[in-house]
Specification:
The structure holds two protein chains of two kinds. Helix content of chain A is 71%, strand content 2%. Chain A is mostly helical. Chain A has two domains: 197 residues, no CATH class; 72 residues, no CATH class. Chain A is globular and about 60 Å long. By secondary structure, chain B is of the alpha/beta class. Chain B has 14 helices and 15 strands. In chain B, helix 2 runs parallel beside helix 12 and helix 3 packs parallel to helix 4. The chains are: A mainly alpha, B alpha/beta. At the A-B interface, helix 1, strand 2, helix 9 and helix 10 of A face strand 7, helix 7, helix 8 and helix 9 of B.
């Protein structure tokens, strides 16, 4: 194994890491504030990709407008879900949320599949990156697709902005306060439930954004989120639920480790993440960056 | 076309005269074709409802040319969800309750093997068109199972041999890590090395999988002349998409595929696959005769047929002709009529049902995907490179592991 080989795979791993980071970031934000394990996150990621595809087909919108519009649409869908459905379950056991979001996943997948088959006559569809980002660049040690470099960059920027907003601004302070202790926050005259809807929308919008970014790399497929979401949950467990920076760092790190693992020993590609998860659970049950439940 | 019709009419007249000699005996007073297929999953576009339609078309055409069967041939289509246990239950149900006389199509190797077992126990012919495993005519062969259209040996042997002989003599292969992929990789490797080629690397990838970049970067570093992907369906679409994204084609690394169907090309776009080499048993614009049939199919059902759907038509017709020759639809009699039968139709050329292992051998074609700019019409995907004669296209009998 040469340094060059390692460098190539690190770069490559950052791409998958970017998707893990964006998705687990959304999950972390949602869990932190709502205590909801959003199983529909993968389906909403897929919805983002599908929306971009549909916007292109129906309105001839290219990648750039879709990159903004599709996540907004997904975010709005998320807010409707929160207002219409999730809100009713807040007082109940967490497993109700899990069942509901799982059901929503199945529903969304089949709905998209039906629309794709009946409206566009395909079961999965290609989506091309914009011309300005197609082709490869010579990085010196390897040829690498331009678009993938863009994915790494954009994901990093979005992650850092989210982190900054939550950790360093007044809006973030309210969100954090609502997370820590909704009761006391309400006592300060802040309408926590409104913020809850907004946060859910943004968290889900991040998944939609990841979906649009994934569309040119993978084919747009009704089940594209199903596989990814499982890995993402493992990432969240490794990083520790509710930690923003933790999700970002873990997302990228797991992507890199999985890529190196897959290149060195292909059969381990799909299991490596779960081996890591098992080790972390044994050594640090609350995750690498999470605080133990009692200290919250 | 008129001449053909005249010929058909004469033939059926002969049939009618012969029929007088021995009366027709059909259980339940009819022949029922059972299409066991994937109605809504990953293979539903290449088989599925289109296969059921193909069988229906065969039934209609057969009844037109065989008046004594008028109103007596029907078709049912059943979904097996690509699962072996479902396939097994449904196959039994179709035979026991719906009284089908033959099972057809059956994509997904494990489902095909399961249905084949049911057919054996119930003495009902099973003609597999869309399942690929060579086990059907080797270790798992039985008296009632027939394998039509293609199989893994034919795909690997055709593509591996042709590409290696054309100078593509160093390969990097990736294959999905389950029965189908392992089998295909083994057969492909054998075909390449036998023809003097060299495997510079091979990786087993998870199945299903969406991200193949780690493997593609290894391929890029290994610089083989040919990148061979044994993935199928949606996985194949992703591999090829990323093969283009990483610019491997521009770096002089050619693409060869294991199982390539029309659907993958439609879904990713013709140019993404341009230059790729594969082996197929048939394609719709192979020649005038194929085209006539394919356009007829399109006229009736709105879509051009895949080779699997065309295969289901041909297999249905071959089965019905055997019923007509046997004057009976009992499994035993039809099997006897099929064994050793030689025929040629729009789909199967120079075909024969090998009595020893029930492999239906036929001419197959090594093809190269044309760039979009060279396409003259809708779905004009393939440029024929070579015809592999029936006798050479499939596992030689000397290597067969079938004991019937």
């Amino acid at each position: 194994m040469t340094i060059q080989f390692l460098l190539i795979q690190v770069f490559n791993g950052l791409v998958n890491g970017a998707f893990y980071a964006l998705l687990s970031l959304g999950l972390a934000v949602i869990f932190g504030m709502l205590r909801i394990v959003n199983f529909a996150h993968g389906a909403l990621y897929m919805l983002g990709a599908f929306t971009a595809f549909a916007l292109g087909q129906l309105l001839h919108l290219g990648f750039w407008p879709s990159l903004i519009i599709a996540p907004v649409i997904v975010g709005v869908v998320g807010m409707l879900i929160e207002r219409g459905l999730l809100k009713r379950l807040y007082g109940l056991d967490a497993s109700y949320n899990l069942l509901l979001t799982f059901g929503l996943t199945l529903l969304t997948q089949d709905l998209v599949k039906q629309v794709m088959l009946s409206k566009f006559a395909v079961s999965s569809a290609p989506y091309t990156p914009p011309d300005s980002l197609s082709g490869v660049v010579n990085l010196g040690f390897t040829m690498f697709p331009k678009y993938r470099l863009f994915v790494i960059g954009l994901a990093l920027v979005i992650c850092l902005i989210t982190w900054f907003v939550i950790e360093k601004t007044r809006v973030g302070a309210i969100i954090r306060a609502s997370t820590e202790n909704p009761g006391v926050t309400r006592a300060f005259g802040i309408d926590v439930s409104k913020w809850v809807t907004g946060v859910f929308g943004v968290g889900v919008g991040l998944a939609g954004l990841a979906g649009v970014m994934a569309a040119p790399i993978y084919s747009v497929d009704p089940y594209m989120g199903a596989e990814l979401i499982i890995t993402t949950f493992a990432v969240v467990v490794i990083g520790g639920l509710g930690s923003i920076m933790g999700s970002i760092i873990t997302g990228f790190a797991v992507g890199v480790l999985a890529a190196i693992g897959a290149a060195l020993y292909p059969p381990i590609a799909n299991t490596l993440v779960f081996i890591l998860m098992a080790i972390v659970l044994l050594v640090r049950p609350s995750g690498l960056f999470g605080l133990p439940e009692g200290t919250r | 076309m008129k001449k053909v019709n005249l010929l058909l009419a004469t033939l059926s007249l002969c049939g009618a005269t012969l029929a007088g000699a021995q009366s027709l005996s059909l259980a339940d007073d009819g022949v029922k074709l059972g299409v066991l297929t994937d109605m809504s999953g990953v293979y539903s576009e290449m088989t599925g409802p289109g296969s059921v339609k193909a069988a229906q078309m065969a039934a209609d055409d057969f009844m037109k040319s065989h008046k004594e069967f008028t109103g007596k041939v029907s078709v049912v289509g059943v979904d097996h969800n690509n699962k072996a246990d479902v396939a097994s239950n449904k196959a039994a149900e179709m035979i026991d309750r719906q009284h089908v006389d033959v099972l057809l199509d059956i994509p997904t190797s494990s489902a095909a093997l399961a249905a084949s077992e049911v057919g054996k126990n119930k003495k009902i012919p099973v003609i597999i068109v869309s399942g690929g495993t060579t086990a059907l005519t080797n270790e798992k062969c039985n008296k009632y199972t027939f394998h039509y259209a293609y199989d893994n040996y034919m795909l690997a042997n055709g593509t591996g041999t042709t590409v290696t002989k054309k100078g593509g003599n160093s390969w990097y292969i990736i294959y999905p890590n389950y029965a189908f992929g392992q089998d295909l990789n083994r057969q492909m490797t054998a075909a390449i090395t036998e023809n003097g080629g060299k495997i510079v690397g091979s990786d087993a990838t998870p199945f299903p999988n969406t991200d193949f970049s780690s493997y593609l970067l290894k391929v890029q570093a290994a610089k083989p002349k040919i990148f061979g992907t044994m993935q199928a369906g949606n996985d194949l679409v992703n591999v090829v998409k990323q093969y283009n994204e990483f610019g491997l084609k521009k770096q002089g690394i050619g693409l060869s595929t294991g199982l390539l169907g029309e659907q993958e090309i439609s879904s990713l776009g013709q140019d993404a696959f341009a230059g790729a080499i594969a082996t197929v048993p048939w394609f719709w614009n192979l020649d005038a005769r194929s085209r006539v049939w394919a356009l007829q199919y399109k006229k009736l059902y709105g879509k051009l047929p895949t080779y699997m759907q065309a295969g289901v038509y041909s297999a249905s017709m071959t089965y019905l002709n055997a019923v007509s020759r046997a004057r009976s639809d009992s499994g035993e009699a039809v099997v006897k009529a099929l064994e050793g039968y030689k025929f040629s139709d729009f789909f199967a050329r120079n075909a024969m049902v090998r009595p020893q292992d029930h492999r239906v051998i036929l001419d197959v074609y090594t093809v190269q995907v044309k760039p979009k700019s060279a396409a003259k019409e809708e779905q004009d995907y393939f440029q024929r490179l070579q015809t592999i004669p029936a006798a050479k296209a499939f596992t030689p009998l000397t290597e067969s592991k079938c004991k019937m």
